[in-house]
Design a protein that fits this description.
This protein has 271 residues and is α/β, with parallel strands linked by helices. The protein has a single domain, classed as TIM Barrel. The protein is built from 12 helices and 10 strands. Strands 1-4-5-6-7-8-9-10 form an 8-stranded parallel barrel, surrounded by 7 helices. It has a two-stranded antiparallel sheet with strand order 2-3. Helix 1 packs across helix 9 and helix 5 packs parallel to helix 7. The longest helix is centred in the last third of the chain and has 15 residues. It is globular and about 50 Å long. The N and C termini lie far apart (45 Å).
Amino acid sequence: MKLSAELQLAVDEAATVAATAKSARRAVSLLDLTSLNDDDTEERVLDLCRRAVTPVGPVAAVCVRPRFVKAARKALKGSRVKVATVVNFPDGEDDAATVAAATRDAVGNGAHEVDVVLPYRTFIEGGRTLPLNVLRACRDACGEGVTMKVILEAGAFPDADLLDWAARDAINAGADFLKTSTGRVQPAATLENAALILHAIGQSGRTVGFKASGGIRDAAAAAAFLHLADALMGKGWAKPDTFRFGASGLLDSLLAVLGEGGAVRDAAEAY
């Protein structure tokens, strides 16, 4: 994916960044601790919720399948951790009515945030009406106070211009966040597609967040994405209401940098 010289320079600089205790602690607070496996169980989800309250503070959210929203909401009662779920996931092939119904169910069950997959195949093939209708239906069903994150599936896009177009359309449809990937299509989150999406957000003039998701497994990768956000959006922009990491294995790496690996296991057992 070809970037402008300015964006490419920011990407190249971010790729050289090393993880530090400061970047790791910051990343913990921005993490959507995620489990979206087809074979997930309530026991696995409850373990995820236990891990979400770490020795260095809570993560931003847990992200689980819709059928586990009630259990996660109950398990996290009294914490600051939000509950996120997914609709139109992972293929992005549901129609607007189906997405709206799934979103209403998720919100009714207690979801604070809904990650909706853009009908990206239709968009890439030239369709615009169906993708916009799906996103607008999700936005309406979320209502006030529920965050809508649009999953662009950036790795499926053949060129930068088309990804930028999708990002701008998602913003116009009411996205609160733009998210790189489901994690099911490769490449998933890359510094290159992150730069393009962050640039689109900046150009929009709206308050829209960014979520890097898919393949971010270690503290060094997290540090690189944070550095990129600082460079393109300004230091202090990346906060829980504007920046997230969607990951399942990242937390262990972050806590290892902070020397908290054993402590998080103890905390989980005592929860």
